[in-house]
Amino acid sequence: MPQPPSEGLVVAYYGDDFTGSTDVMETLEDAGIPTLLFLEPPTREEVASHPEVRAVGVAGVSRTLSPAEMDDELPPVFSALAALGAPLLHYKICSTFDSSPEVGSIGRATELLRRAVPGGEERATALVVGVPQLGRWTAFGTLFATFQGEVYRLDRHPAMSVHPITPMHEADVRIHLSGQTSLPLSLIDVFDLDGPDDEVARRVDESLGSSDGIVVLDVADHETQRRVGSALHRRLEAASTTGGTAVVVGSSGVEYALGAAWGRQGHAAERAVRPAGTTLVVSGSRAPATQRQAEAAVAAGFLRVDLDPGAVTAESATDAEDARAAVAAQVVAALSASDRVLLFTPPPVPGAPAVDGTRLSLALADITRQVLDRVDIPRLVVAGGDTSGYVAKALGIRALRLVRRLAPGSPLCSAVSDDPRVDGMELCLKGGQIGAPDYFVRIADLGTDDVGTENVGAAAAG
Length: 462
Hints:
By secondary structure, the chain is of the alpha/beta class. The chain has helices at residues 18-30, 44-48, 67-82, 106-115, 173-178, 197-209, 222-242, 253-262, 288-299, 309-312, 317-337, 357-374, 385-394, 439-445; strands at residues 11-15, 35-38, 55-59, 88-92, 125-128, 136-139, 142-147, 150-153, 185-188, 214-217, 246-250, 279-283, 303-306, 340-344, 379-383, 397-407, 410-417, 426-430. The model is unreliable at 458-462 (pLDDT under 50). Pfam families: NBD_C, SBD_N.
């Protein structure tokens, strides 16, 4: 059974949103690869100051960027990550392939990734999306995902087919991706991955070796996942031997596949959790799962503070600032009355003007910063991938360490910051669709003698 290199960095990655980045961190940790997740690209010296670390990530926001914005944002980050010397450089995307030619273009990001390493444009780029552990499968290049216990082709998925920013109208990832890049697209399907290991390895390596474009690899079950992981390991190993860098694009299925190939699961070291105390939940997600979690939290005694999305993102800067300050004051008052408070973004009202998602995330980040300036918050939960990233940056968080696995893709983390009020803060940064209905309640209960984490993530990850 192959094993990761015994010394040095194994993987460097960039996540296209914040919660997806923590998903990769916990998957690597589960495979016994200590990981540090940064909000900005670290220097070699900064990484060297953490000698135990074997993987480094940067939590990004490229899922919300246009191709032109990607051209400005991604090349310096990719170059900085490549300079760290890890043999595998991963551009992490969502397992539901959120993207379009105009927003979050996976095709454009792949082109930029390939340019960041010597020879990257002449070699195949593997694309791995399926993650059975998260209810995501690819078969014959077609992506399937769960929704409330049922499996749907992604273009018929009740949520993704009507996504407000990047609706999925095509489940074949090659066809979907063809609108975002002119790179050649090919497939290694479930039949190619069937048979004796040596024959499968030969077929897969020949397919990857004969392409200079994007090669999609099916992941439909544990066995195809293990064989895809073995193929990625061989590319990682070859790069490690030559001192080069192999690039890969995909969901956390990349790391799950490597862990399966290495036979390394359940290796994450759990760190001590603080005693249960003040917990603030900041909800920027309007996903149904988050709505149910908010209802359960209020029923369990959380004080709820609602904000008006239109007011806190008003065109008038003065009006918006005043609205945010008023909400922050309400949250501070609630925290003086209760150690469990929920700052809640209500679902859209039919007929109401649309609110820009980025501006709303920035408003929530500003409110959270104002609250922290006035109240100590030992445990913070943020719901919403984009909101999580903006809140973390507003708080001056430099990096995150894994404390404990909870729901898939949303572990409990500890903040690394120069600000003593933030350094060591416990954080849960979760995607909107992640977690069981009692997620917020059970996070707040962590640290009491009778509370475990086994059911925190009963719902499928988003």
